[in-house]
């Protein structure tokens, strides 16, 4: 039967609140509240040199900070292990081609490119961290505005980079292919989406799959000390794809609605 | 944090099994103590606790079990001494625990309620609310130590989930918890789906209706 402790079905998400542009001195930011889980993401665009193996692309750098306020286990340096695990998951999710258009981040091949530093801050830990973080990252990337630059050549051949004067003249990222992570936790014989802390305590193994809005999987990861039967992995993947697609649709709707309100919308921010 | 009084009902979780007692976590500053001599043992009331009883302690209550008990006395350092010397206390079987602030639980004559909607609830003074399916027979031979592990039917589980969400809604809106308020909230939530009760708008609407009915009851 399809009934969990709080009345949800196995594929239902908790009530989520998404808000973008909450931090003023970043290029893009977002805050996501999924039940008791609270995530703040800030994206800063900085100029740098491209990587040697990909000279005509920019890249993303992820950093996850588990705030000590999130849960008592994160006191001092307790949250570092979890933070590095989350960051490496984000790297593998965004590693496949086509998730973000990296070529648009290039200014001068081999010399200048935009590097997007994505910083994730865990404000409160209430179960299902991966999903909330991926939703927040997608919203923040949607909200990111990178200023347009022009490269001028001097007579001596040295290049000068000029920032356009208009502060609203900027490039936006195309987030259609940015994937979202769906965590499927196996409890007993069934698997559930969006586990609360209590459900996570009962679950022995879970599967993280990152799904794009078209239903393509970019990465799969298994966490937990239990084992998963190959048949159930297949079932979980199908569920994940279904749930992921509807999640993307709902998220895009909210982001578009927020965008249409423009500057007149009331911001709650992250202190409220 | 919960500050205990003698005669309060509490719901707690066993954290340690020690020499002649169990340590129980009750959301207070110090862990409460349940002495072996304060426990009902099968074989009659006035049995002397022997050495075999001590060794068999783990058969009765292990770490992680939930119990309902009454506060017998308070030690000088503030730790509570619990007792389960009545058939209505003892180990709790299948059900749902909701942890709330102790100040929201109203002090009443009785804290064990059988709600007409089909489930029972124990309102612990320490803020631990236990919701469970109403047991069919009322006679307990073993003194409340056997746990019934049969699967709970879907209809009972729906009632329990709805009650749990109602309790969470009442707590979020800072309304006192007692049997009438929970019952009114349950009735007010019936038109909505169980999972919708946790949405902020629906929660406000239900609690407003409950508050109105409670005011009408008083006035």
UniProtKB/TrEMBL annotation, chain A:
Matching InterPro entries: ExoRNase_PH_dom1, ExoRNase_PH_dom2, ExoRNase_PH_dom2_sf, Exosome_comp_Rrp42_subfam, PNPase/RNase_PH_dom_sf, Ribosomal_Su5_D2-typ_SF
Annotated keywords: Acetylation, Cytoplasm, Exosome, Nucleus, RNA-binding, rRNA processing
Compartment(s): Cytoplasm; Nucleus, Nucleolus
Gene Ontology biological process: exonucleolytic trimming to generate mature 3'-end of 5.8S rRNA from tricistronic rRNA transcript (SSU-rRNA, 5.8S rRNA, LSU-rRNA); nuclear mRNA surveillance; nuclear polyadenylation-dependent rRNA catabolic process; rRNA catabolic process; TRAMP-dependent tRNA surveillance pathway; U1 snRNA 3'-end processing; U4 snRNA 3'-end processing; U5 snRNA 3'-end processing
Keyword field contains Methyltransferase: no
GO CC term, one of those recorded: nucleolus
Molecular function terms from GO: mRNA 3'-UTR AU-rich region binding
Residue ranges occupied by any Exoribonuclease phosphorolytic domain in the UniProt entry: 13-147, 177-242
UniProt entry tagged with the keyword Transferase: no
Subunit structure: Component of the RNA exosome core complex (Exo-9), composed of EXOSC1, EXOSC2, EXOSC3, EXOSC4, EXOSC5, EXOSC6, EXOSC7, EXOSC8 and EXOSC9; within the complex interacts with EXOSC2 and EXOSC4. The catalytically inactive RNA exosome core complex (Exo-9) associates with the catalytic subunit EXOSC10/RRP6. Exo-9 may associate with DIS3 to form the nucleolar exosome complex, or DIS3L to form the cytoplasmic exosome complex. Exo-9 is formed by a hexameric base ring consisting of the heterodimers EXOSC4-EXOSC9, EXOSC5-EXOSC8 and EXOSC6-EXOSC7, and a cap ring consisting of EXOSC1, EXOSC2 and EXOSC3.
Family statement: Belongs to the RNase PH family.
This protein's name: Exosome component 7
Lineage: Eukaryota, Metazoa, Chordata, Craniata, Vertebrata
TrEMBL record, chain B:
Any Pfam family matching the protein: KH_6
CC annotations in GO: cytoplasmic exosome (RNase complex); nuclear exosome (RNase complex)
Keywords noted in UniProt: Exosome, Nucleus, RNA-binding, rRNA processing
Residues annotated as domain K Homology: 95-136
GO biological process entries: CUT catabolic process; exonucleolytic trimming to generate mature 3'-end of 5.8S rRNA from tricistronic rRNA transcript (SSU-rRNA, 5.8S rRNA, LSU-rRNA); nuclear polyadenylation-dependent rRNA catabolic process; poly(A)-dependent snoRNA 3'-end processing; TRAMP-dependent tRNA surveillance pathway; U4 snRNA 3'-end processing
GO MF annotation, one: RNA binding
Locations listed in the record: Nucleus
Domain RRP4 S1: 1-73
InterPro entries: Exosome_RNA_bind1/RRP40/RRP4, KH_dom_type_1, KH_dom_type_1_sf, NA-bd_OB-fold, S1_RRP4
Main location: nucleus
Family that this chain belongs to: Belongs to the RRP4 family.
UniProt-recorded name of the protein: EXOS2 protein
Natural source organism: Crotophaga sulcirostris
Gene designation: Exosc2
């Amino acid at each position: 039967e399809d009934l969990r402790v709080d009345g949800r079905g196995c594929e239902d998400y908790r009530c989520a609140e998404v808000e973008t542009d909450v931090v003023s001195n970043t290029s893009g930011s977002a805050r996501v509240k999924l039940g008791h889980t609270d995530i703040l993401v800030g994206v800063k665009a900085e100029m740098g040199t491209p990587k040697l193996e990909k000279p005509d692309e920019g890249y993303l750098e992820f950093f996850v900070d588990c705030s000590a306020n999130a849960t008592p286990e994160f006191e001092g340096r307790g949250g570092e292990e979890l933070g590095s695990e989350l960051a490496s998951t984000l790297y593998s999710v965004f590693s496949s081609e086509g998730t973000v258009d990296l070529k648009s981040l290039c200014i001068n091949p081999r010399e200048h490119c935009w590097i997007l530093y994505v910083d994730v801050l865990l404000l409160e830990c209430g179960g299902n961290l991966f999903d909330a973080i991926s939703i927040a990252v997608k919203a923040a990337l949607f909200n990111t505005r990178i200023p347009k630059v022009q490269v001028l050549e001097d007579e001596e051949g040295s290049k000068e980079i000029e920032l356009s004067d208009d502060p609203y003249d900027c490039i936006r990222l195309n987030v259609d292919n940015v994937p979202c992570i769906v965590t499927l936790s196996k409890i007993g014989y069934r698997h559930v989406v969006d586990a609360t802390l209590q459900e996570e305590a009962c679950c022995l193994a879970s599967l993280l799959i990152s799904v794009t809005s078209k239903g393509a999987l970019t990465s799969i990861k298994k966490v937990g000390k239990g084992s998963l039967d190959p048949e159930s992995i297949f079932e979980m993947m199908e569920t994940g794809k279904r749930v992921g697609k509807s999640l993307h649709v709902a998220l895009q709707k909210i982001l578009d609605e927020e965008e249409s309100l423009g500057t007149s919308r009331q911001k709650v921010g992250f202190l409220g | 944090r919960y500050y205990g009084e003698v005669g309060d009902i509490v719901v707690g979780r066993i954290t340690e099994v020690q020499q002649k007692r169990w340590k129980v976590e009750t959301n207070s500053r110090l862990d409460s103590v349940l002495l072996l001599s304060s426990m009902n043992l099968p074989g009659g009331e006035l049995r002397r606790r022997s050495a075999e009883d001590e060794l068999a302690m783990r058969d009765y209550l292990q770490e992680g079990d939930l119990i309902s008990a009454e506060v017998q006395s308070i030690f000088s350092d503030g730790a509570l001494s619990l007792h389960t010397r009545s058939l209505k206390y003892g180990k709790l079987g299948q059900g749902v625990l909701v942890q709330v602030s102790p100040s929201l639980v109203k002090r009443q004559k009785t804290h064990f309620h059988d709600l007409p909607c089909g489930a029972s609830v124990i309102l612990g003074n320490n803020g631990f609310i236990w919701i469970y399916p109403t047991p069919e027979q009322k006679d307990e031979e073993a003194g409340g130590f056997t746990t019934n592990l049969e699967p709970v039917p879907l209809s009972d589980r729906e009632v329990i989930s709805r009650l749990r969400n109602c309790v969470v809604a009442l707590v979020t809106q800072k309304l006192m918890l007692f049997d009438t308020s929970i019952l009114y909230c349950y009735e007010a939530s019936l038109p909505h789906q169980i999972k919708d009760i946790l949405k902020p708008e629906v929660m406000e609407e239900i609690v407003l209706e409950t508050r109105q009915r409670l005011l009408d009851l008083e006035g």
